[in-house]
Amino acid sequence: MTSHREPTVVGVPNFNAMEDAAALRAAMKGFGTDEQAIIDILTSRSNAQRQAISQAFTHEYGRDLIDDLKSELGGHFEDVIVALMLPPEEYLCKELNKCMDGLGTDESVLIEILCTRTKKEIADIVQAYERLYNRPLAEHMCSETSGDFRRLLTLIVTRAPQGARDEEAGVDAARAAESAQQLYDAGEAKWGTDEEVFNKILAHESFAQLKLIFEEYKNIAGRTIEQAIKAEVDGELKDAYSAIVECVQSAPAWFARRLRAAMQGLGTDDTTLIRVLVSRAEVDLAAIKREYEALYDKTLESEIRGETSGDYKRALVALLGPA
Description:
- This protein is mainly α.
- Helices cover 71% and strands 0% of the residues.
């Protein structure tokens, strides 16, 4: 996962929070709501700019912008706009909490959020989670997951502050060869798989270091780490390992596949569609669009237009930026 960013939303130059706050107030005041004005403003501002608008709005009108938006909007359109208004880590915390709350846990959301992020992003999420819900994320997750899958996720979130996924540290070729040998010994070289070794390496090393480890692995094993994982592991643990491995190769391609799955089959998984577009818009959504087209021979925009409608569709398409 390179630090090379390809956002579709970068904010606007000559930004004026007060002017935007006034325009949003005008769009919601009186009879009817000007949804297009809301879309135009909020999908083109960066998250930092949206936070500034929110503060200016409260300062000027003594009102909460998110509350006002919620009272004026509805359905999935409201979900997109509220998602855009939350600080990124708070939004992801809400999504994590939602996927663990109530009956059953949606493991695919845990994987999407926790297995694809850098150490710094995870540390921000862990901090925000405790602040918002008054309990550690690791503790909540432990009560909702089990086995090696639980151990992997726990390693990812508890090691984040102490150096798991240290993206800033350089890569170490000698250590990569050692780790690759450990993975080989823990998997293919023996009967049954030692998940503990896999967990430790996959949760702990930076994406750049993992890339080296996986190259070394191929030299030792004569097949890719993906092939080994598919053959040795199953269930959500396999999905989690695969997400880490695929994000090491290309996070945008992993997210393109995630979007495809959200739009295939009966009905659309709107929550995932919204979450991926909103959370990647300032990171690599331009690259995700490119990967999507390369993988499926269709543009992401045309697929989204086919699955959504109205203001909801217009907001998502606006986040995609120019074709």
